[in-house]
Amino acid sequence: MNSKQHWENIYQTKKPEEVSWTQPVPVTSLNFIRKLNLPKASRIIDIGGGDSKLVDHLFDEGNTDLTVLDISEHAIERAQARLGPRHDKVQWIVGDLTLVKLPSVYDLWHDRAAFHFLISPGDVELYVSLLRNSVVLGGHAIIATFSTAGPNKCSGLSITQYDEHTLATLLLPDFTLIESLTEDHVTPFGTKQNFLFCLFRKQR
Predict the structure, then answer these.
(1) Distance CA 93, CA 75 (A)
(2) What count of other Cβ atoms lies within 10 Å of the Cβ of residue 60?
(3) Are strands 43-47 and 65-70 parallel, antiparallel or unpaired?
(4) Which member of 72, 145, 159, 181 has the lowest number of beta carbons within 10 Å of its beta carbon?
(5) CA–CA distances in Å: residue 152 to residues 117, 164, 176
(6) What are the sequence ranges of the domains in the chain?
(7) Residues ≥6 apart with Cβ < 8 Å to 36
(8) How far apart are CA 77 and CA 139, in angstroms?
(9) pTM (two decimals)
């Protein structure tokens, strides 16, 4: 089973409360975004957004230019159904992070728990290249991965753990680290997963 088949199967067979990454309210991501005080027309892309509710909350806060990318068509269909008529106001992209060509550049790149699934150096390099070419100068990236105190697998797949130094070094010299934190995400099953959140600014 390849990566796309894996994720299509997950989103076809499991409800939101049956997967570990579900968040009723993505509090930490929203707090980082609010701190940036971006104009409401800023171009925001949620990488690996799936059926995350981040897009719902960004809509509620007045943001008007939103894009969601995910490898799973089923995940995006679930998000569209949940949003109802508002889904027409979002640009939806079904694509693999290592292969996709994005149609625009963005003021904010948000990725919670997609990047850490890339475990080969080649795929990591492709991601960093896409990030570098897809964020405007002075724009920002929020990347959240499992920390070095977090799990080493998710959804049956191996992941790469990061600390702030390792992640920041990967993005140099184009991005500079502004802020980072770790937090325990409590899954719907009551277990804890330690995440690292990093906020970067594109400086060149």
Answers:
(1) 11
(2) 10
(3) parallel
(4) 181
(5) 10, 17, 26
(6) 3-15+23-202
(7) 108, 140
(8) 29
(9) 0.97
Which superfamily, per CATH, for 3-15+23-202? Answer: Vaccinia Virus protein VP39 (3.40.50.150)
Placement of tokens 């969601």 in the chain: 68
- Confidence label for 195 from pLDDT (cuts 50, 70 and 90): very high
Q: What is the pLDDT of residues 83-122, one digit of tens each?
A: 999 999 999 999 999 999 999 999 999 999 999 999 999 9
* CA–CA distance, 103 with 64 (Å, rounded to integer): 17
Quick: pLDDT tens for 136-176. 999 999 999 999 999 999 999 999 999 999 999 999 999 99
What are the pLDDT digits (tens) for 39-75? 999 999 999 998 999 999 999 999 999 999 999 999 9
Per the structure block, which two tokens stand in for 124?
């990591």
CA triple 124-202-134, angle to 5 deg = 60
